[in-house]
From TrEMBL, chains A, B:
Family, similarity comment: Belongs to the pterin-4-alpha-carbinolamine dehydratase family.
Catalytic function, reaction form: (4aS,6R)-4a-hydroxy-L-erythro-5,6,7,8-tetrahydrobiopterin = (6R)-L-erythro-6,7-dihydrobiopterin + H2O
Protein's UniProt name: 4a-hydroxytetrahydrobiopterin dehydratase
EC numbers for this chain: 4.2.1.96
Pfam family, one: Pterin_4a
EC category name: lyase
Keywords carried by this UniProt record: Lyase
Length: 93, 93
């Protein structure tokens, strides 16, 4: 079992990792998005992100023709996990 | 024809306005998201937004039980349009 198995949902066709995070208010959402943007600048991993006032969904797609999530993508997911663990966020369904 | 009819696609069930904007690079995407976040703070309108490295999709949902897009939501859409007109962005399909 890898480090992100408990926090990210792996889906197939197309292969991707997904995680949803909920926040108490818009300020929390924005702070989170800013931190994740910095991760992207640091790593070159640019996930698809959708968000509303108090939630963020992150989807990390395997890059075709890759048939697995790349190590740098897993590392990105782990950085998001560490950020979530350090803040008052809740994981949604 | 209202002011946003040429730039936003109105969809039904649920009623919503949608607009996609494409960017040359991630910096453009981030600048745009920051500006739109400020619009939300100014207006209290919090659309659903999805984005990747070089695109942003904005969806403004009518708030149930409303059966039409509210005036402040249309005003928000018009501010986005003005922002797009002032930057080097392209509208995607």
């Amino acid at each position: 079992m890898n480090a992100t198995a408990a926090t990210w949902r792996q889906r197939e066709r197309p292969l991707r990792l997904e995680r949803r995070v909920d926040f108490d208010d818009y300020a929390g959402t924005r702070d989170f998005l800013d931190a994740v943007a910095q991760f992207s600048k640091d790593t070159g991993v640019y996930p698809d992100i959708s968000f509303g006032r108090t939630y963020v969904n992150i989807t990390i797609h395997a890059d075709p023709p890759a048939t697995d999530i790349a190590p740098e993508q897993t590392a990105f997911a782990e950085r998001v996990d560490a950020l979530c663990a350090s803040e008052s966020v809740t994981s949604g369904g």
